[in-house]
Amino acid sequence: MEEPSGRSEEGGPETTGTLYVVATPIGNLEDITLRAIRILKEVRLIAAEDTRRTRILLDRYEIPTPLTSLYDQNEAKKSGLLIARLLKGEDVAYVSDAGTPGISDPGYILVRDAILRGIRVTPIPGASALIAALSASGLPMDSFVFLGFLPSKSMRRRKFLTSLREEERTLVFYESPHRLVESLKDIASALGDREVVVSREMTKIHEEFLRGPVGAVSSGMGDGTVKGEVTLIVAGRTAEIPECSDEELIRRCEQLKQEAGEELSRRDMADRIARETGVARRRIYRFLLFP
Fold first, then answer.
1. Residue 112 pLDDT > 90
2. Is the pLDDT of residue 8 over 70?
3. For 170-213, what is each residue's pLDDT tens digit?
4. Nearest to residue 272, comparing CAs of 261, 285, 262?
5. β-bridge pairing 230-234 and 170-175
6. Would you say 185 and 145 are in contact if contact means Cβ atoms under 8 Å apart?
7. Residues of 17-30 as b/e, b for ≥16 C-beta within 10 angstroms?
8. 20: which residues sit within 8 A by CB, 6+ positions away?
9. What percent of the chain has pLDDT over 90?
10. Closest to 35 in 3D by CA, of 122, 101, 140, 141
11. Which of 25, 191, 198, 201 yields a CA-CA distance of 20 to 30 A from 120?
12. Taking Cα atoms as reference points, which of 107, 109, 136, 134 lies closest to residue 123?
């Protein structure tokens, strides 16, 4: 299937090339799409975060396309050279070491510059460590926030985590394996004993998921020796219902009796107050029996 062809602002055929942002496997080399393989074969040049690592993937799928490097330290300078080739009509692909480029990886500057120059940027979707980890986490996935790597310095990390206390969405981080145990301790200190999931070496032979309260997960890691890429998922804040005293329950029961009169049965009253307070209906029902 052919890629969609672009148009210039004047309405004629597009004269610039296309920048393809190509997702690559996060571990298992089989996790690459057929479209990604085709695009990597068809473009004139592949820019890669680490050409040595990308060469392993290209050799596996017999992709002969020339490689050039584009990483954090040279992205600002190298992007201009790639933009020049795109403006000449050459198609270029960009890949990071693993997963989707730009997600805590280089790629943002190149994509931004291409868009500013009117060059078509096309994503070639595929693997993403944060989505893969989240999908198998068992924590809520309907609403989450990805926050990249946690700060490396302990003081900054604790301050950052403290700022997330009220966040109700599931929290997703990347973390360095040698900082993982300390980060778990800081999470417990700043956020309490929340449910966490530590995903390590996803799609590889030694894939591992550790799930449970952060204190138990941290204790279960022993001496803290961890290897491989880590994605860390933390449960968001759950709504806490304040404790309701007996006096407050009595007041609510008497108020509802006066307001509802004979319109509500004791069971209906107990149900309503239970919904409002989070208190067990059995406890409420005792107070409704008062004359």
1. yes
2. no
3. 999 999 999 999 999 999 888 888 899 999 999 999 999 999 99
4. 285
5. antiparallel
6. no
7. bbbbbbbbbbbeee
8. 39, 43, 91, 92, 93, 94, 122, 123, 124
9. 65
10. 122
11. 25
12. 107
Determine contact, residues 47/84, Cβ cutoff 8 Å. no
Please give, one letter per residue, the 3-state secondary structure of 69-103: ECCCCCHHHHHHHHHHHHHCCCCEEEECCCECCCC
CA distance 156 to 151: 6
Q: Report the pLDDT value the prediction gives residue 290, as an integer from 0 to 100.
A: 59
| DSSP percent split of the chain into helix, strand, coil, nearest 5 | 40, 20, 45
Pair of tokens at residue 127: 């693997």
How far are the Cα atoms of 52, 238, 270, 289 from residue 279, in angstroms, in the given order?
Answer: 61, 16, 10, 16
Q: Of 228 and 64, which is predicted with more confidence?
A: 64
Strand (E) or helix (H) holding 196: strand 195-200
Residue 250: what residue type? I
The span from the CA of 152 to the CA of 262, in Å, is 63
User: CB-based contacts of 178: which residues, under 8 Å, 6+ apart?
Assistant: 226
CA 41 from centre of chain: 30
Residue (of 174, 104, 128, 110) closest to 33 by Cα position: 128
User: What region, left, alpha or beta, does residue 120 occupy, with left being phi > 0 and alpha being psi -120 to 50 degrees?
Assistant: beta
Using CA atoms, how far apart are residues 70 and 76, in angstroms rounded to an integer? 9
Q: What is the pTM of this model?
A: 0.76
**Spatial separation of the C-alpha atoms in residues 132 and 125, rounded to whole Å:** 13
